[in-house]
Write a structure and sequence with these properties.
This is S-adenosyl-L-methionine-dependent methyltransferase. GO terms for molecular function: methyltransferase activity. It comes from Mycobacterium botniense. It is an enzyme of class 2 (transferase). Exhibits S-adenosyl-L-methionine-dependent methyltransferase activity. It is a single chain. This protein has a single domain (14-305), classed as Rossmann fold. The chain has twelve helices and seven strands. Helix 1 (14-30) crosses helix 2 and helix 1 (14-30) packs across helix 4. It has helices at 14-30, 42-49, 55-58, 68-97, 113-116, 131-143, 163-169, 191-203, 223-243, 263-269, 279-285, 291-295, and strands at 102-106, 124-129, 151-156, 178-182, 210-216, 272-278, 298-305. Strands 3-2-1-4-5-7-6 form a seven-stranded mixed β-sheet, sandwiched between helices. The protein is globular, with a radius of gyration of 19 Å. Strand 1, helix 5 and strand 2 form a beta-alpha-beta unit. The chain is an alpha/beta fold. It starts with 13 loop residues before the first helix and ends with a strand. 44% of the residues lie in helices and 14% in strands.
Length: 308
């Protein structure tokens, strides 16, 4: 179902299903022979949610009759999520080592950093997401006896609403430096909503704050790339439908292929010191195939606010 301005979702619906797809990729990476990341909670979420398109990525081995192109797409997704997870894990631990004690994960989805990272004492982490998504995560992890390693504060609010007010009401202090993440989020916002998001982050960020985000590469707006992507995802969805006994969500309907403000340039103009690297550079760093950078062009951006 196409997106609307006021749509909401449960964890197995619409954008919520993308969180399960990411968890599936993290679960597959965790179970691999030489994993870049270890997320013991990822498969717990999948077991709780049941089957869906995410099941295609979580399987330890695909059936023999699955064609090479689908296998390549699945492998690319897993590699992408592995290095993306490393990028954000390293960002948060570096921010904590630098003395930042207030962290915010925007559109936290089924991220389990509050539970799995070796946080130092004194960290407060705010998770912002749709109410039903946060509830699913909290109930599932409580049922399995998991406890967060930080002072975790859930902020159940849609990022298209007045989330800064909800964040402050939950105890967030804009006068203190903050570590922010926007992981796997921007493509699911319109271009104008993305601009609003970073304007709000900037307003809430004291000097010394840090930010990490991944942005879709400009090549993803190329008409030929978009047409090829639609064909690939249509084929993958068809294969997934044959493997799981449930309706399979069309993930391509969920994002907005719109021209956007260049995030690095915007941050530089607003007093942030920025570094950026392509997905291809991160894949090469860890010896992974470059196929994912063509299938899912991304730029990883990290920044530190240096002036008001």
């Amino acid at each position: 179902m196409p997106r609307t301005d006021d749509d909401t979702w449960d964890i197995t619906e619409s954008v919520g299903a993308t969180a399960l797809t990411v968890a599936a990729a993290r679960a597959a990476e965790t179970d691999s022979e030489n994993p870049l990341i270890r997320d013991p909670f990822a498969r717990v979420f999948l077991d709780e949610a049941g089957q869906g398109i995410w099941s295609l990525y979580a399987k330890p081995a695909l059936p023999d009759d699955v064609d090479t192109d689908v296998r390549t797409m699945v492998r690319a997704m897993i590699d992408f999520m592995a290095v993306r997870t490393v990028f954000f894990d390293e960002f948060f631990l570096a921010a904590a080592d630098a003395g930042i004690q207030q962290m915010v994960i925007l559109a936290s989805g089924l991220d389990a950093r509050a539970w799995r990272l070796p946080w130092p004492d004194g960290i407060t982490l705010y998770e912002v997401d749709q109410p039903k998504v946060l509830e699913f995560k909290a109930v599932t992890l409580q049922r399995h006896g998991a406890r967060p390693r930080v002072n975790l504060v859930n902020v159940p609010v849609d990022l298209r609403q007045d989330w800064p007010r909800a964040l402050r009401d939950a105890g967030f202090d804009p006068a203190r430096p903050t570590g922010w993440s926007a992981e796997g989020l921007l493509r699911y916002l319109t271009a104008s909503a993305q601009d609003s998001l970073f304007e709000r982050i900037h307003e809430l960020s004291a000097v010394g704050s840090r930010l990490a985000a991944n942005a879709v590469g400009a090549e993803a707006l190329n008409p030929q790339w978009l047409a090829r992507q639609r064909d690939q995802m249509r084929h993958l969805r068809s294969v997934a439908t044959g493997l799981v006994d449930t309706d399979v969500i069309d993930l391509e309907e969920l994002w907005y292929p719109e021209e956007r403000t260049d995030l690095s340039a915007w941050l530089n103009e607003h007093g942030w010191e920025v570094s950026a690297a392509t997905l291809g550079e991160w894949l090469a760093r860890y010896g992974r195939s470059d196929v994912a950078s063509d299938r899912m062009p991304n730029v990883f951006v990290s920044a530190r606010r240096t002036r008001s």
